[in-house]
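Example record for the data management plan.
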Amino acid sequence: MEQLEYLVTQFNWGAAAQIILVALLFHAILALIRGTQADILVRGALVVLVAILVIGRVLQLPLINWIVENGLILLGFAMVVVFQPEIRRLLERVGRTGTLVARPFGNTTPEDTEVMIGEVVTAVQALSGRVWGSILVIQRTGGLDEYAATGTRLEAQLSQELLLTAFHPGSELHDGAILVRGRMVTAAHVMLPLSDALGPQDHVGTRHRAGLGITEASDAVAVMTSEESGGISFAADGRLERHLTPDQLRRRLETAFRVQTRGAALQSLPAWISRR
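Corresponding structural encoding:
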Protein backbone atom coordinates (compact mmCIF):
# COMPACT_ATOMS: atom_id res chain seq x y z
CA MET A 1 0.00 0.00 0.00
CA GLU A 2 2.84 2.39 0.77
CA GLN A 3 4.32 1.79 -2.69
CA LEU A 4 0.91 2.35 -4.27
CA GLU A 5 0.44 5.62 -2.38
CA TYR A 6 3.93 6.72 -3.47
CA LEU A 7 3.14 5.99 -7.11
CA VAL A 8 -0.11 7.96 -6.85
CA THR A 9 1.73 10.99 -5.47
CA GLN A 10 4.26 10.80 -8.33
CA PHE A 11 1.60 10.61 -11.06
CA ASN A 12 1.21 13.79 -13.13
CA TRP A 13 0.51 14.93 -16.70
CA GLY A 14 4.07 14.15 -17.73
CA ALA A 15 3.79 10.59 -16.49
CA ALA A 16 0.44 10.21 -18.25
CA ALA A 17 1.97 11.42 -21.52
CA GLN A 18 4.84 8.93 -21.18
CA ILE A 19 2.40 6.07 -20.53
CA ILE A 20 0.39 7.00 -23.61
CA LEU A 21 3.51 7.19 -25.78
CA VAL A 22 4.76 3.81 -24.58
CA ALA A 23 1.31 2.29 -25.17
CA LEU A 24 1.22 3.69 -28.71
CA LEU A 25 4.71 2.33 -29.37
CA PHE A 26 3.77 -1.15 -28.22
CA HIS A 27 0.54 -0.97 -30.22
CA ALA A 28 2.49 -0.07 -33.38
CA ILE A 29 4.93 -2.93 -32.85
CA LEU A 30 2.17 -5.46 -32.18
CA ALA A 31 0.19 -4.24 -35.21
CA LEU A 32 3.32 -4.61 -37.34
CA ILE A 33 3.96 -8.23 -36.40
CA ARG A 34 0.32 -9.34 -36.18
CA GLY A 35 -0.32 -12.24 -38.55
CA THR A 36 3.38 -13.02 -39.00
CA GLN A 37 5.61 -15.68 -37.51
CA ALA A 38 7.03 -13.03 -35.19
CA ASP A 39 3.60 -12.89 -33.54
CA ILE A 40 4.01 -16.48 -32.35
CA LEU A 41 7.61 -15.87 -31.25
CA VAL A 42 6.61 -12.83 -29.18
CA ARG A 43 3.88 -14.78 -27.44
CA GLY A 44 6.28 -17.59 -26.66
CA ALA A 45 8.93 -15.19 -25.38
CA LEU A 46 6.40 -13.40 -23.15
CA VAL A 47 5.19 -16.71 -21.66
CA VAL A 48 8.77 -17.79 -20.90
CA LEU A 49 9.68 -14.38 -19.44
CA VAL A 50 6.61 -14.22 -17.20
CA ALA A 51 7.22 -17.80 -16.03
CA ILE A 52 10.84 -16.99 -15.13
CA LEU A 53 9.80 -13.82 -13.28
CA VAL A 54 7.14 -15.66 -11.29
CA ILE A 55 9.46 -18.54 -10.41
CA GLY A 56 12.27 -16.17 -9.41
CA ARG A 57 10.03 -14.01 -7.21
CA VAL A 58 7.95 -16.74 -5.62
CA LEU A 59 10.81 -19.12 -4.86
CA GLN A 60 13.24 -16.29 -4.09
CA LEU A 61 15.98 -17.53 -6.42
CA PRO A 62 18.71 -14.83 -6.47
CA LEU A 63 20.50 -16.19 -9.53
CA ILE A 64 17.37 -16.18 -11.70
CA ASN A 65 16.42 -12.71 -10.46
CA TRP A 66 19.92 -11.45 -11.28
CA ILE A 67 19.75 -12.94 -14.78
CA VAL A 68 16.37 -11.32 -15.42
CA GLU A 69 17.45 -7.92 -14.14
CA ASN A 70 20.81 -7.89 -15.95
CA GLY A 71 19.91 -9.77 -19.09
CA LEU A 72 17.64 -7.11 -20.62
CA ILE A 73 20.45 -5.72 -22.80
CA LEU A 74 21.24 -9.17 -24.20
CA LEU A 75 17.52 -9.74 -24.68
CA GLY A 76 17.31 -6.50 -26.65
CA PHE A 77 20.07 -7.61 -29.01
CA ALA A 78 18.40 -10.98 -29.40
CA MET A 79 15.10 -9.32 -30.29
CA VAL A 80 16.82 -7.22 -32.96
CA VAL A 81 18.29 -10.35 -34.55
CA VAL A 82 15.10 -12.42 -34.36
CA PHE A 83 12.74 -9.68 -35.56
CA GLN A 84 15.06 -8.05 -38.10
CA PRO A 85 12.55 -8.23 -41.02
CA GLU A 86 9.74 -6.65 -38.96
CA ILE A 87 12.04 -3.93 -37.59
CA ARG A 88 13.25 -3.15 -41.10
CA ARG A 89 9.66 -2.89 -42.32
CA LEU A 90 8.79 -0.55 -39.45
CA LEU A 91 11.77 1.72 -40.18
CA GLU A 92 10.90 1.73 -43.88
CA ARG A 93 7.36 2.84 -43.08
CA VAL A 94 8.64 5.60 -40.82
CA GLY A 95 11.08 6.70 -43.53
CA ARG A 96 8.29 6.78 -46.10
CA THR A 97 6.15 9.12 -44.02
CA GLY A 98 7.66 12.25 -45.56
CA THR A 99 7.31 10.78 -49.03
CA LEU A 100 3.67 9.95 -48.48
CA VAL A 101 2.95 13.49 -47.33
CA ALA A 102 4.75 15.10 -50.25
CA ARG A 103 3.62 12.57 -52.88
CA PRO A 104 0.53 10.69 -51.64
CA PHE A 105 0.30 8.71 -54.89
CA GLY A 106 3.98 7.80 -55.04
CA ASN A 107 5.85 8.51 -58.28
CA THR A 108 2.73 8.51 -60.49
CA THR A 109 -0.36 10.67 -60.85
CA PRO A 110 -3.81 9.54 -59.68
CA GLU A 111 -4.89 9.27 -63.32
CA ASP A 112 -1.98 6.95 -64.14
CA THR A 113 -2.78 4.86 -61.08
CA GLU A 114 -6.42 4.43 -62.12
CA VAL A 115 -5.36 3.37 -65.63
CA MET A 116 -2.80 0.97 -64.16
CA ILE A 117 -5.38 -0.67 -61.90
CA GLY A 118 -7.78 -1.12 -64.80
CA GLU A 119 -5.13 -2.71 -67.02
CA VAL A 120 -3.88 -5.00 -64.23
CA VAL A 121 -7.35 -6.22 -63.25
CA THR A 122 -8.31 -6.85 -66.88
CA ALA A 123 -5.08 -8.72 -67.60
CA VAL A 124 -5.25 -10.76 -64.39
CA GLN A 125 -8.83 -11.76 -65.15
CA ALA A 126 -7.71 -12.96 -68.59
CA LEU A 127 -4.72 -14.82 -67.13
CA SER A 128 -6.95 -16.46 -64.54
CA GLY A 129 -9.41 -17.55 -67.23
CA ARG A 130 -6.58 -19.12 -69.24
CA VAL A 131 -5.13 -20.73 -66.06
CA TRP A 132 -1.72 -19.18 -66.77
CA GLY A 133 0.63 -18.62 -63.86
CA SER A 134 1.75 -15.02 -63.34
CA ILE A 135 3.13 -12.62 -60.77
CA LEU A 136 2.89 -8.85 -61.05
CA VAL A 137 4.76 -6.60 -58.63
CA ILE A 138 3.43 -3.05 -58.54
CA GLN A 139 5.68 -0.34 -57.13
CA ARG A 140 4.38 2.15 -54.62
CA THR A 141 6.74 4.66 -52.98
CA GLY A 142 9.83 2.49 -52.56
CA GLY A 143 12.14 1.77 -55.49
CA LEU A 144 12.60 -1.71 -56.94
CA ASP A 145 15.70 -1.13 -59.09
CA GLU A 146 17.74 -3.77 -57.24
CA TYR A 147 15.17 -6.38 -58.24
CA ALA A 148 14.72 -5.06 -61.76
CA ALA A 149 18.45 -5.61 -62.30
CA THR A 150 17.91 -9.37 -61.94
CA GLY A 151 15.55 -9.50 -64.93
CA THR A 152 15.10 -8.06 -68.43
CA ARG A 153 14.55 -4.32 -68.74
CA LEU A 154 11.49 -3.43 -70.84
CA GLU A 155 10.34 0.15 -70.07
CA ALA A 156 7.22 -0.54 -72.12
CA GLN A 157 3.68 0.77 -71.94
CA LEU A 158 1.49 -1.30 -69.64
CA SER A 159 -1.25 -3.16 -71.50
CA GLN A 160 -3.23 -6.36 -71.27
CA GLU A 161 -1.66 -7.61 -74.50
CA LEU A 162 1.86 -7.14 -73.18
CA LEU A 163 1.13 -9.00 -69.94
CA LEU A 164 -0.58 -11.88 -71.74
CA THR A 165 2.36 -12.16 -74.13
CA ALA A 166 4.93 -12.11 -71.31
CA PHE A 167 3.12 -14.75 -69.25
CA HIS A 168 2.31 -17.06 -72.14
CA PRO A 169 3.56 -20.53 -71.11
CA GLY A 170 5.85 -20.62 -74.15
CA SER A 171 7.37 -17.21 -73.53
CA GLU A 172 10.98 -16.79 -72.42
CA LEU A 173 9.72 -14.25 -69.87
CA HIS A 174 7.10 -16.57 -68.39
CA ASP A 175 9.16 -17.50 -65.34
CA GLY A 176 9.79 -14.70 -62.89
CA ALA A 177 7.88 -11.54 -62.06
CA ILE A 178 6.94 -8.42 -63.99
CA LEU A 179 7.55 -5.07 -62.33
CA VAL A 180 5.01 -2.31 -62.90
CA ARG A 181 5.45 1.39 -62.09
CA GLY A 182 2.45 3.51 -62.93
CA ARG A 183 1.54 2.90 -66.58
CA MET A 184 4.93 1.37 -67.40
CA VAL A 185 6.28 -2.17 -67.26
CA THR A 186 9.86 -1.63 -66.13
CA ALA A 187 11.20 -5.20 -66.16
CA ALA A 188 10.23 -8.84 -66.70
CA HIS A 189 11.65 -12.23 -65.74
CA VAL A 190 12.58 -10.71 -62.35
CA MET A 191 13.78 -12.85 -59.46
CA LEU A 192 12.22 -12.08 -56.07
CA PRO A 193 13.06 -13.02 -52.46
CA LEU A 194 11.07 -15.94 -51.10
CA SER A 195 9.07 -15.59 -47.92
CA ASP A 196 9.68 -17.92 -44.98
CA ALA A 197 6.23 -17.21 -43.53
CA LEU A 198 4.54 -19.85 -45.70
CA GLY A 199 5.05 -23.55 -45.08
CA PRO A 200 3.89 -26.82 -46.67
CA GLN A 201 0.63 -26.58 -44.75
CA ASP A 202 -0.31 -23.44 -46.71
CA HIS A 203 -0.32 -25.38 -50.00
CA VAL A 204 1.25 -22.62 -52.06
CA GLY A 205 4.08 -22.70 -54.55
CA THR A 206 7.15 -20.63 -55.24
CA ARG A 207 5.15 -17.96 -57.05
CA HIS A 208 3.09 -17.10 -53.97
CA ARG A 209 6.13 -17.24 -51.69
CA ALA A 210 7.91 -14.81 -54.00
CA GLY A 211 4.90 -12.49 -54.13
CA LEU A 212 4.68 -12.42 -50.36
CA GLY A 213 8.45 -12.10 -50.03
CA ILE A 214 8.67 -8.88 -52.07
CA THR A 215 5.96 -7.30 -49.89
CA GLU A 216 7.97 -8.21 -46.79
CA ALA A 217 11.12 -6.61 -48.24
CA SER A 218 9.44 -3.50 -49.72
CA ASP A 219 6.18 -1.57 -49.77
CA ALA A 220 5.24 -2.95 -53.21
CA VAL A 221 2.11 -5.04 -53.75
CA ALA A 222 1.98 -8.30 -55.67
CA VAL A 223 -0.76 -9.97 -57.69
CA MET A 224 -0.48 -13.65 -58.57
CA THR A 225 -2.50 -16.14 -60.62
CA SER A 226 -2.14 -19.86 -60.08
CA GLU A 227 -1.14 -22.08 -63.00
CA GLU A 228 -2.98 -24.96 -61.33
CA SER A 229 -6.37 -23.43 -60.58
CA GLY A 230 -6.26 -19.94 -62.06
CA GLY A 231 -6.96 -18.51 -58.60
CA ILE A 232 -6.14 -14.84 -58.00
CA SER A 233 -4.03 -13.86 -54.98
CA PHE A 234 -2.99 -10.48 -53.60
CA ALA A 235 -0.11 -9.69 -51.23
CA ALA A 236 0.66 -6.42 -49.44
CA ASP A 237 2.57 -5.50 -46.28
CA GLY A 238 3.62 -9.10 -45.66
CA ARG A 239 0.07 -10.50 -45.83
CA LEU A 240 -1.40 -12.80 -48.45
CA GLU A 241 -5.02 -13.09 -49.59
CA ARG A 242 -6.10 -15.88 -51.93
CA HIS A 243 -9.08 -16.85 -54.06
CA LEU A 244 -10.12 -13.29 -54.90
CA THR A 245 -12.57 -12.24 -57.59
CA PRO A 246 -11.58 -9.53 -60.10
CA ASP A 247 -13.82 -7.03 -58.27
CA GLN A 248 -12.19 -7.87 -54.95
CA LEU A 249 -8.76 -7.46 -56.53
CA ARG A 250 -9.75 -4.06 -57.86
CA ARG A 251 -10.85 -2.94 -54.40
CA ARG A 252 -7.60 -4.20 -52.85
CA LEU A 253 -5.57 -2.24 -55.38
CA GLU A 254 -7.67 0.89 -54.93
CA THR A 255 -7.14 0.64 -51.18
CA ALA A 256 -3.40 0.01 -51.54
CA PHE A 257 -2.98 3.06 -53.78
CA ARG A 258 -5.75 5.06 -52.11
CA VAL A 259 -7.62 5.61 -55.33
CA GLN A 260 -11.10 7.04 -54.88
CA THR A 261 -13.62 6.61 -57.63
CA ARG A 262 -15.52 9.65 -58.79
CA GLY A 263 -18.83 8.34 -57.47
CA ALA A 264 -17.39 7.63 -54.04
CA ALA A 265 -15.71 11.02 -54.00
CA LEU A 266 -18.98 12.78 -54.81
CA GLN A 267 -20.79 10.85 -52.10
CA SER A 268 -18.29 12.13 -49.55
CA LEU A 269 -18.92 15.76 -50.53
CA PRO A 270 -21.76 17.93 -49.22
CA ALA A 271 -24.98 17.52 -51.16
CA TRP A 272 -24.97 21.12 -52.50
CA ILE A 273 -21.54 20.49 -54.07
CA SER A 274 -22.21 17.01 -55.50
CA ARG A 275 -25.36 18.23 -57.27
CA ARG A 276 -23.36 20.62 -59.43
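Summary line stored alongside the record: Strands lie at 134-138, 152-157, 177-181, 184-190, 221-225, 232-236, 239-244.
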